[in-house]
Amino acid sequence: MTRLSEQVKASVSLRRLAERAGVAWDPRKSAPRRGDWWAPCPFHAERSASFHVLEPAGAGGFFKCFGCGRKGSAIDFVIEAEGVPVREALRRLASSAGIDREDTAAAARRAEAHARARAAAEAEDAERAARGLEAARWIWRQTEPAGPLLESYLAARGVDLAAIGGVPASLRFAPALEHWAHGADTRRARPLHVGPAMVAAIGRGALVGVHRTWIAAEGRARLPDGAKVGKKMIGRTGAIFGAPVRLSTSRLGVVVGEGIETTLAAWSALVRAGLGGRWGAEAALSLGALAGPGDPRGKGPAGPDGYPLPSPRPDLGARVPHWLPAEGVRAALILGEGSAKGGGEAARRFAERARAKLAARGFEAEVRVPGGRWDLEADFADLAAAEAARVAPER
Fold first, then answer.
1. Structural domain tally of the chain?
2. Which intervals hold domain Zinc finger CHC2-type (predicted)?
């Protein structure tokens, strides 16, 4: 089987395989002449194009998602996308490529070429990870402690800073941070936006990356056309996905949501109500990291209301990074939100997956959603901000 697998890896076009599976390449980031392709990952929920296929020869490519960490050859892609064992994936690809058998010398040459290509791809991955971490460290060194603008922004998003003792130490302020379309985009003379930003440290203990939100006193910063300046993450690829922004030390329980602001708003409300004694807070930064690995085919066992539970393949949980509570934490309060991308049903599916993932590992886990409704186009920060505006005294 080893020789056949090398033939398949070297002969099948991973790019075309991904396209047939519905992957849509990002033309702004891809370089077709170099066989360098980027797209949103088909294996986890994301908005950015962090799924990378390197295939300069037109076949024999490798993929790696710099978000969820999945990587491999065409065989690995079929295993992940179709949820089949390795032998079945190999059989399907060999059949579709018309590969039956090949003489030993030709197979050896293909295996050698494949090994060289894989080594080159892994070296590029390691270099990219190192560059990402150094960039994150550089940005963090440029920040300063939270000041009036960051405090005003968080207050406008419904965060009760007085209840939680001020802005968490993991959040700092950058007075004039550049926002580029794709890193430092040399094709543009200037960045898309330069302005004040909230910079969050990603990781428990050691810094593995930073999350950036461009802000104004009344809310998110906006581009000239009125669109919000997009949030950005950068750091050590392979380690950043699933690592949280730690907003407080978790005690017996942790309040966890996708975003920083909605998590802070819900946690500060809990503290204000006198119920925060056992609860810390963390932001998971993405629904995919919060929910954990799901069935790659979108099938599998269903939970309440028919929504899919985590993948029946336990190996995914070990190989794919995702958020889990810190050591010593026993319970999690998971924050759902009807304003998530994909609408209320998608949000409920992710939240239920997160609850089931934690329950299967022995944690107490409960889901809360704003207003108790998944069809409410709001998160906890939106509701807290609206309530603060409603009760604010007239000036």
1. 2
2. 37-94
